[in-house]
Design a protein that fits this description.
The protein is mainly α. It is built from five helices and no strands. The chain has one domain.
Length: about 140
């Protein structure tokens, strides 16, 4: 079955962009999650992080927060780069998803580590999204 071009033209352009919008956010989320998981695995394998089941010290949580901030910005930049329009808005949407995931993780893992760590993850998610989007907008203007 073939859809006539006039039928496609009658669909609002916003509706046709929804899959690209969702895909952009999912791509940024994947970049963030895969990169953070890879670094976690390397740090566990090299003995920087203690073996599973053993407590981690606060400085290691600070290290994890630091690279998660970097990956949050990178994932948001990817989202903004792939967004069909309004790059910063899409990147901030990814930040909002990060806040939700951080809060869910905080509830699920409460008491496993220091209380500041999941709170900090939730607190930095939106600023990381904004910054990733701002970096993309700056690149689009050619001022990088």
């Amino acid at each position: 079955m073939t859809i006539a071009r006039s039928t496609l033209d009658s669909i609002p352009s916003t509706s046709r962009r929804i899959p690209r919008r969702v895909g952009a956010v999912l791509a940024g989320l994947a970049v963030n999650a895969i990169a953070a998981s890879a670094v976690d695995a390397v740090l566990y394998a090299t003995g920087v992080f203690p073996p599973a089941g053993q407590p981690m010290i606060g400085a290691l949580f600070a290290l994890a927060l630091a690279y998660r901030i970097v990956f949050g910005i990178a994932g948001s930049y990817v989202t903004a780069r792939l967004a069909p329009d309004r790059p910063k808005a899409h990147a901030v949407a990814l930040g909002a998803v990060g806040v939700v995931f951080s809060l869910v993780g905080m509830i699920a893992m409460w008491g496993v580590g220091p209380a500041w760590y999941p709170l900090a993850l939730a607190a930095v998610a939106l600023p990381c999204g904004w910054l990733g989007g701002a970096l993309r907008e700056r690149a689009l203007r050619g001022t990088c």
